[in-house]
Design brief:
The structure holds 2 protein chains of 2 kinds. Chain A is built from 9 helices and no strands. By secondary structure, chain A is mainly α. The relative contact order of chain A is 0.15. Chain B is an alpha/beta fold. Chain B folds into 2 domains: 111 residues, Rossmann fold (3-Layer(aba) Sandwich); 70 residues. In chain B, the strands form 2 sheets. Chain B has a 5-stranded parallel β-sheet with strand order 5-6-7-3-8, sandwiched between helices. A 3-stranded antiparallel β-sheet of chain B has the order 2-1-4, covered by helices on one side. The longest helix of chain B has 16 residues. Classes of the chains: A mainly alpha, B alpha/beta.
Chain lengths: 218, 204
């Protein structure tokens, strides 16, 4: 499993690996929003937590179809399925690799890009904390979506439609943590719900992803 | 461990294509599957490899014993030849890739990116992968596609060595590898009749 993780990370940083795709998209969204809504600081700082969360979510979505489709196209997925790795382990490693190459850079970039949106000072820590807690769920749910659509040519649209509703709870509670943090309110309830969603999907979805992947490999 | 297939029926896209297939592949022997295009060689091999459940019948001696090689080689274009082989070796818990490189004459290509190899060289790398799995039963689907005569001889030699070490091989191929140990099974008589159409598979 470690070999698979290292291979995926190595592939991501080699040419054409797609590392930085999500990050670049996140940068573009957050740079363009002030141009779109105008330079009014009060308005920007009010919508900043939500914009950062939506940007991170869409950036995540953009890179989902690479999680399994590339391995399916070159036949590695068939070979991995006959290797002594449990399918649940394979999809978990894939989700971890996706989080390290996409989710983690987004978490690290969010405070920097927050400056462009004049994010209120107390909100910085809560944006980072909510993204740290929420992005693993985005990667795990995304891997499930990728497993559902792995055999389809141009399955990206279908996958987005399947995955977006599943992303909504994470977005609602993640953005709520950041918004309440920005206004200096207590964040405990949305924070616990966000963490609960993440832990729940991490615990359960790999089994579902493995099951649909087995069916799709037939 | 004897790979044993009993009364196997396989379907593809909801359509029964083979039924009543039975054979044994004991250690040290190779079985070559023959039959016209579309008769179900690939589907049968995928069932034996466990990628697809059998409709009827059973496969014993395959679980965690087989090394499967399909139409595609599972190579990553942006990894070098040795990186590709090392990855598969560590997935199967082995580390020594030198014999595999030597057996398929890949030493001169060690540091080339797999994406820059020719089709035949990629195939040789895909077949070298079998040697780093340490699995006793090789299940091969058209292993000699795009190989030249010299490479086919290398492959035949590798299979012979594998059989000599107590391994076995099940392969679908149209060319004669010159293996004395190989038995041939023609799949044409096992073709499923039109009556045994299965509909429920289509809904899965």
């Amino acid at each position: 499993m470690r070999a698979l993780l290292l291979r995926d990370l190595r592939l991501a940083i080699r040419a054409g690996g797609g590392f930085g795709l999500g990050l670049a998209f996140f940068l573009i969204v957050t740079v363009l929003v002030p141009f779109g809504v105008g330079p009014e600081t009060a308005l920007l700082s009010r919508i900043a937590p939500g914009i950062l969360w939506i940007g991170a979510l869409l950036a995540c979505l953009l890179s989902l179809d690479r999680i399994l489709a590339l391995d399916w196209e070159d036949g590695s997925l068939d070979l991995l399925a006959t290797a002594p790795l449990p399918m649940e382990g394979i999809v978990t490693v894939k989700a971890i690799a996706h989080w390290i190459t996409t989710g983690l850079p987004l978490v690290l970039a969010a405070p920097v890009l927050g400056v462009l949106l004049s994010l209120p000072v107390p909100a910085y820590q809560w944006v980072v904390i909510s993204l740290v807690l929420g992005t693993p769920a985005l990667s795990v749910i995304g891997t499930f979506g990728a497993a559902l659509t792995v055999g389809l040519k141009r399955g990206g649209l279908l996958m987005s439609l399947l995955v977006l509703p599943l992303y909504v709870p994470t977005l609602i509670f993640g953005a709520e943590v950041a918004r309440r943090g920005a206004e200096g309110l207590t964040v405990q309830t949305p924070l616990l719900l966000l963490a609960g969603i993440s832990l729940g999907v991490i615990a359960l979805l790999p089994f579902a992803s493995a099951a649909v992947l087995r069916i799709n490999l037939r | 461990m004897v790979l044993s297939v009993r009364d196997l029926a396989v379907t593809r896209g909801g359509l029964a294509i083979l039924e009543g297939v039975s054979f044994d592949v004991p250690p040290g022997e190779a079985l070559v599957l023959r039959g016209p295009n579309g008769v179900g060689k690939t589907t049968l091999l995928r069932s034996v490899a466990g990628l697809q459940p059998a409709e009827v019948g059973q496969v014993t001696g395959a679980e965690d014993e087989i090394a499967y090689s399909g139409h595609s080689d599972g190579l990553k274009a942006m990894l070098s030849v040795t990186e590709n082989l090392r990855f598969w070796a560590s997935v199967f818990g082995l580390s020594d890739i030198a014999p595999a490189l030597a057996a398929f004459d890949l030493e001169g290509l060690r540091d080339r990116m797999a994406g820059t190899l020719s089709a035949g060289q990629k195939r040789r790398l895909g077949l070298a992968r079998l040697m780093v799995t340490g699995r006793p039963v090789w299940v091969l689907d058209e292993p000699t596609v795009s190989l030249d005569t010299a490479s086919v001889a290398l492959f035949a030699q590798a299979v012979r060595t594998h059989l000599g070490q107590g391994g076995s091989a099940l392969m679908a191929t149209h060319i004669d590898l010159g293996l004395a140990e190989a038995h041939v099974l023609d799949l044409t008589p096992y073709k499923a009749g039109p009556r045994s159409r299965q509909m429920d598979e289509a809904f899965l």
